[in-house]
Write a structure and sequence with these properties.
mainly alpha; elongated; 85% helix; single chain; 10 helices
Length: 209
């Protein structure tokens, strides 16, 4: 296990402390929101209350300043916080608010991210058909605009979807697509994860046979 003082954690704490100092002194609202978003992410898996505190500050600033791009980012973060807190319907509401702005700003990659986030939320709600259709909607958009990392992520999620309903051939198809893209991108960590997912599918196939 990594100790509390490993170099990566120390660097993260130092960066967070440095950004908090900038936050306290800068008058640049867009920069303030960017820092608050960073801090929201940093505390997401550490303290939901702290993460929410920073996200709410960012939301208030973005709304007051009418900064739509920044607001679209904050809405997504609020959705992610609620998703991890099990507040799935609230998460979807925030994702929808972000999606409206992403479309208005012609932020295609942002649209893909939100559709993927929404699909995961519906999946956790047990609405598998809605989730599947949304994954495919996101994948179509990602393929149209050659967003390879997003394609890989969505294909992995579709693999998980089909694995969950024991449609192992379909699961293998999408896991393999994700693996091929990640190999091209030389994304070592994701390659290892997808290979593990594929091994699980092979195990289930053999078990069925």
């Amino acid at each position: 296990l990594c100790c509390l003082w490993c170099p990566e954690l120390v660097a993260q704490h130092e960066k967070a402390d440095s950004l908090k100092q900038v936050l306290a002194t800068t008058d640049d609202v867009a920069l303030q929101i960017k820092i608050l978003n960073y801090l929201t992410n940093q505390y997401l898996y550490v303290s939901t209350d702290t993460s929410t505190h920073y996200a709410d500050r960012a939301l208030e600033l973005a709304k007051a300043s009418h900064l739509e791009k920044e607001l679209s980012f904050v809405y997504r973060l609020k959705g992610i916080i609620d998703f991890h807190s099990g507040k799935l319907n609230s998460a979807i509401t925030y994702y929808d608010s972000s999606l409206v702005l992403r479309k208005k700003l012609h932020d295609v990659q942002g649209e893909v991210l939100i559709l993927n986030n929404k699909a995961l939320a519906y999946q956790h709600l047990g609405s598998q058909e809605i989730a599947k259709n949304m994954f495919f909607q996101a994948l179509e958009l990602a393929e149209k605009h050659a967003l390879a990392p997003n394609q890989a992520d969505i294909c992995n999620n579709l693999g998980m979807h089909y694995k969950g309903i024991a449609a192992y051939d379909s699961a293998m198809h999408f896991y393999q697509k994700s693996l091929d893209i990640n190999l091209t991108l030389e994304n070592t960590a994701e390659v290892a994860l997808i290979k593990s997912n594929i091994a699980t599918i092979n195990f289930h196939r053999n078990d069925v046979l």
